[in-house]
Design a protein that fits this description.
The structure is a homodimer. Chain A is elongated and about 75 Å long. By secondary structure, chain A is mainly alpha-helical. In chain A, strand 2 and strand 3 form a beta hairpin. Chain A is built from six helices and three strands; from the N terminus they run ααβααββαα. In chain A, strands 1-3-2 form a three-stranded antiparallel sheet. The longest helix of chain A is centred in the C-terminal third of the chain and has 32 residues. At the A-B interface, helix 1, helix 5 and helix 6 of A face helix 1, helix 5 and helix 6 of B. Chain A binds a DNA duplex through helix 4.
DNA sequence: CGCTGACTTCATTTTGAATTGAACAAAGTC
DNA sequence: GACTTTGTTCAATTCAAAATGAAGTCAGCG
């Protein structure tokens, strides 16, 4: 329980103890661990709980579709967490469900159309934030304008600056979207 | 204590109860509240604790430099939190310290060179993340290559896709930096 | 229809990050 | 040099988000 800051220590192996081996080949477990670590590390930035990232990692790391039970065993989470995590991932469109005929259990495989995932991420997390910020900034400007005395000018100035940056960020998003679209696949 | 999700409810006033009035003009308190709310809402995305965002909000909203004590009163945090928050903000270069001669107390004012703040944000939070991810991905590829059987091909494929997106994101950062630099001020 | 297996839901618990506050500097003041 | 004022540090606490697990739902089976 060394308080390892995941940001400062660049690329130090995390091994959150998340991936349980269970009579599987070493190579497979190793690979899974590494993939899970990769996604878990990105979780915070992407705005998903680490457990969800771990589940996605397990699915992503398996060459064959995995079942609910597989996941629960491998990440060693409770059924409840797995269910919850899978719901989030389905809502994000991060998984494909593969119905194997002769079996009742649903199987999961990563949706490798990462482009959509990226797009959703941008729209949900960034666009939303910026839009809400825009409304707030408009309000801010009004409030500043109601400010008495000579300080008003300074405050309006500050708000304006904020707005300029906000606008820049907003202008950047469509560019990013376009850029990421290019040379797709 | 209505569990208001700050994400879903676009631009609903948050009023975290953070800003305490204290015989100040209504306009001033109103403005401060709005500014604090603005920064607090952005806190998560920017990767700072909300308390820190609130402190910055108070400093930003004040037309005159504010003291340590001012801040503590207005956000109603403990001295410890204010001290901690100010340290973070100083490290980020978000504040300027104004030493008023005849008084012992240090005063704070926002550093309005937001450009540097943005740049630091990009470098610290995004660049770091991406760099660490790059290292991890390289490892991943190796591990995948050690994978036995016909599944190897599929896994290498997946890792490659991941890498492509990662590279795109990395390519985007310098562009963003440049873009944000343009038409500065 | 009663059972079983495969999830889902949600009230409770856990955990880890944010926050407090009391003890500790440091820098004047008288 | 005792005292006050201003701020820092860090162990202990609080609190909200995440995780659990027991009870519930639903679909197929015999």
């Amino acid at each position: 329980m060394l308080g390892m800051s995941s940001v400062t220590a660049a690329a130090a192996p995390v091994d959150s103890g998340l991936v349980r081996a269970a009579g599987r080949a070493v190579a497979q477990v190793d690979f899974e661990s590494a993939v899970v670590d990769f996604f878990v590390e990105a979780a915070d930035l992407l705005g998903v709980p680490k457990s969800v990232a771990a589940i996605y990692g397990v699915v992503f790391a398996s060459p064959v579709p995995v079942s609910f039970a597989d996941i629960a065993v491998r990440v060693n989470f409770s059924k409840g967490s797995v269910s919850q995590g899978l719901r989030i991932l389905r809502e994000m469109g991060a998984l494909k469900e593969v119905s194997i005929e002769a079996d009742r259990a649903e199987l999961f495989t990563p949706d490798l159309e990462l482009r959509q995932l990226m797009q959703r991420f941008i729209e949900q997390r960034l666009q939303r934030q910026l839009d809400s910020g825009r409304v707030r900034l408009a309000g801010l400007k009004k409030t500043a304008a109601a400010f008495p005395g000579p300080a008003q000018k300074e405050l309006l100035q500050r708000v304006k600056k904020l707005q300029q940056w906000h606008d820049k960020a907003r202008a950047l998003l469509p560019m990013a979207k376009t850029f990421l679209k290019l040379s797709g696949r």
